[in-house]
């Protein structure tokens, strides 16, 4: 328990601007993104019957969302910047990777909500001049992102048929 308190304190210690304040826009984005992550868990784990690794490799948005929620709840701009780094990669850029039809509409709504969270974090950093938080958060986000991206790429290479279905929007539940 003491270790968790120390980690929490370490992640919230950066006060390079005004103290972080949770507001209605932030709570709305946390709830919206959590609902999208829960929906993706239901789709991949419940409907498609994938395992947890398959879900996380096909939907790396979920760990990004989890990190954003943790950062927001801790009041840690550093963690939120790290999450925004990942959400930019998987959410904002996902807007240009997936088609805008069929089941992908739901994924694109998730990508839009992640992009709004990235904008929320950017506005907070600029408005409160959180330059140290920006620097450390970007570094933390990259340190998390590169290994995750590498593992995901290796998984997709090992599962080319699933990757093809995922990116074409043709993921369907197993037949009877």
Explain this structure to me?
- The protein has 176 residues and is mostly helical.
- It has one domain.
- It has 8 helices and no strands.
- The longest helix has 28 residues.
- The protein is elongated and about 55 Å long.
- The model has no long low-confidence stretch (mean pLDDT 88).
Strand content: under 5%
* Unreliable spans: none
Oligomerization state: single chain
Largest sheet: none
Helix content: over 70%
SS field, number of helical segments: 8
Write the topology of this structure:
Blueprint lengths: L1 H11 L11 H24 L4 H7 L2 H14 L2 H16 L11 H24 L3 H28 L1 H9 L8
Give a brief outline of the structure:
This protein has 176 residues and is mainly alpha-helical. The chain has helices at residues 2-12, 24-47, 52-58, 61-74, 77-92, 104-127, 131-158, 160-168.
Keywords:
single chain; 176 residues; mainly alpha; 76% helix; elongated
């Amino acid at each position: 328990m003491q270790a968790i308190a120390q980690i929490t304190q370490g992640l919230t210690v950066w006060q390079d601007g005004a103290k972080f304040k949770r507001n209605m826009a932030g709570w709305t984005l946390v709830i919206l993104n959590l609902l999208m992550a829960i929906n993706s868990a239901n789709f991949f784990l419940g409907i498609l019957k994938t395992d947890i690794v398959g879900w996380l490799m096909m939907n790396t948005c979920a760990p990004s969302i989890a990190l954003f929620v943790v950062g927001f709840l801790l009041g840690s701009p550093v963690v939120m910047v790290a999450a925004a780094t990942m959400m930019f990669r998987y959410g904002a850029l996902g807007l240009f990777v997936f088609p805008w039809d069929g089941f992908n509409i739901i994924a694109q709504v998730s990508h839009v909500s992640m992009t709004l969270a990235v904008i929320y974090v950017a506005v907070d950093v600029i408005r409160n001049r959180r330059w140290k938080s920006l620097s450390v958060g970007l570094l933390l986000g990259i340190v998390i992102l590169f290994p995750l991206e590498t593992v995901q790429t290796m998984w997709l290479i090992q599962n080319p048929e699933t990757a093809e279905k995922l990116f074409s929007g043709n993921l369907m539940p197993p037949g009877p």
